[in-house]
Write a structure and sequence with these properties.
This protein is of the alpha+beta class. It has two domains: 124 residues, 2-Layer Sandwich (Alpha-Beta Plaits); 46 residues. It is 59% helix and 16% strand. The protein is built from six helices and five strands; from the N terminus they run αβαβαβαββαα.
């Protein structure tokens, strides 16, 4: 890799660390190409990306960013999984790690907060932003729908009562 390419990689990674919501660091030694491709595909479908770069270049890119605390995790063959949504990358990484013992999550960063492997797993168990929004909308709509059902119920009971009397008279 030439110097210009290295500068380009460092600046791209610096932008990633400065702009993304969460970064997960993991060891990937022993993963097959098919497994790594599946991880990249799963991460892409969740709105994230997976990047493999030299640890020295990643450490250079970390300088001046909030995520500089993860520099200690960069030992051995590591890959970075990141996403704008703080839940997407941890969810995909933890799910992939459960199915693949060679993929070991070391930790990560969410803003200036450095996360260990347990914190990344805990973050993965939280509902996503879309799930939280749908639950909130459901909670907001629930009282209105209950009021509408309560107001409509007496009319529905009368209609059933008249239908029962009508069928009773028709049978007689």
């Amino acid at each position: 890799m030439e110097r210009a390419e290295k500068r380009e990689v460092v600046s791209a990674l610096h932008d990633v660390f400065a702009k993304t919501g969460v970064v997960v660091v993991a060891h990937y030694a022993g993963l097959s190409v098919a497994d790594m491709t599946k991880l990249r595909s799963d991460m892409r479908s969740a709105g994230g990306r997976v990047k493999v770069a030299k640890n020295r270049l990643v450490k250079l890119a970390l300088e001046g960013t909030d995520a500089k605390g993860i520099a200690d995790l960069l030992k051995g063959p590591t890959c970075l999984a990141f996403s704008d949504d703080p839940m997407a990358a941890p969810k995909v990484a933890v799910k992939f790690a459960r199915g693949n013992e060679k993929f070991v999550i070391l930790g990560g960063a969410m803003g200036a907060t450095v996360l260990d492997a347990k914190a990344v797993s805990s973050l993965a168990e939280l509902p996503s932003l879309d799930e939280l929004r749908s639950k909130l909308i459901g909670l907001i709509q629930a009282p209105a729908s209950k009021i509408a059902r309560t107001l409509n119920e007496p009319g529905a009971q009368l209609a059933r009562l008249f239908a029962a009397y009508g069928s009773k008279e028709a049978a007689a």
